[in-house]
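Researcher: We plan to redesign the surface later, but first we want a full-length starting point. Tokens attached.
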């Protein structure tokens, strides 16, 4: 039996569901969907062993990008376009929701879904334990740090960005800036030497891309200037549109 077949079998058994007949190309999507909807709980040693092997195989197929191979656009500042789940650095930032448990929508295209999928079910369980101890939902603009499990980075920093309803407000802007500061402070406190930021609050949370990028670049620059932090910062983008925005802003900022 193939690894993917055994993973689907175990997850289906957990849900008391029969294993459907699937084409080879649909098996990964079905596995991901089952992982996405799985509630946070411990998994068997067998499942974790084969899940980790499968996710490592998937990562090898996608390829890893090491920060050591990137060229900075300014001292300790990088711009990189690609899949953040393939980035090897000390920490990557996840645009989380206030429950901090990852995205439960099967095969959704958000970064929260991707990070939890390719880290493995251990990540949702760790997040659940953190939130259980906290006793309340995560406030906008704050950050938590967890292990990265099967991702090539060492840690994941989870931050809840503002959701924009209608017109952008000053409060939205202050909350977004707080996300960047909180992550940087936590990264430095945890002795991380590098951190990769996604485009927090854009997309599903409707923060305008241009203004979000301006706040990101400005907040990082201010933090490094005031604290003299030596942390290396990667601005990670996925879309061409965001790459053009950051390239222009970073050029103008140096």
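Model: Full-length starting sequence:
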């Amino acid at each position: 039996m193939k690894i993917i077949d055994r993973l689907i079998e175990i997850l289906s058994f957990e849900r008391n569901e029969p294993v459907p007949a699937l084409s080879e190309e649909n098996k990964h999507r079905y596995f991901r969907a089952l992982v996405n909807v799985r509630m946070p709980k411990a998994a068997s040693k067998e499942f974790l062993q084969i899940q980790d092997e499968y996710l490592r195989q998937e990562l090898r197929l996608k390829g890893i990008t090491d920060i050591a191979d990137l060229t900075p656009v300014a001292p300790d500042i990088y711009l990189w376009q690609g899949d953040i789940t393939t980035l090897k650095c000390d920490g990557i930032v996840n645009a989380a929701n206030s429950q901090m448990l990852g995205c439960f929508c099967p095969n959704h295209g958000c970064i929260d879904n991707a990070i939890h999928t390719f880290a493995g079910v251990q990540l949702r369980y760790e997040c659940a334990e953190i939130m259980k101890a906290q006793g309340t939902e995560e406030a906008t603009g704050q950050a938590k740090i967890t292990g990265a499990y099967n991702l090539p980075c060492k840690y994941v920093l989870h931050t809840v960005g503002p959701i924009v309803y209608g017109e952008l407000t000053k409060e939205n802007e202050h909350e977004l800036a707080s996300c960047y500061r909180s992550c940087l402070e936590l990264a430095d406190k945890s002795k991380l030497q590098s951190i990769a930021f996604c485009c927090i609050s854009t997309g599903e949370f409707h923060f305008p891309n241009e203004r979000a990028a301006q706040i990101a670049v400005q907040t990082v620059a201010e933090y490094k200037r005031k604290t003299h932090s030596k942390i290396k910062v990667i601005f990670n983008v996925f879309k061409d549109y965001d790459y053009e925005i950051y390239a222009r802003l970073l050029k103008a900022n140096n």
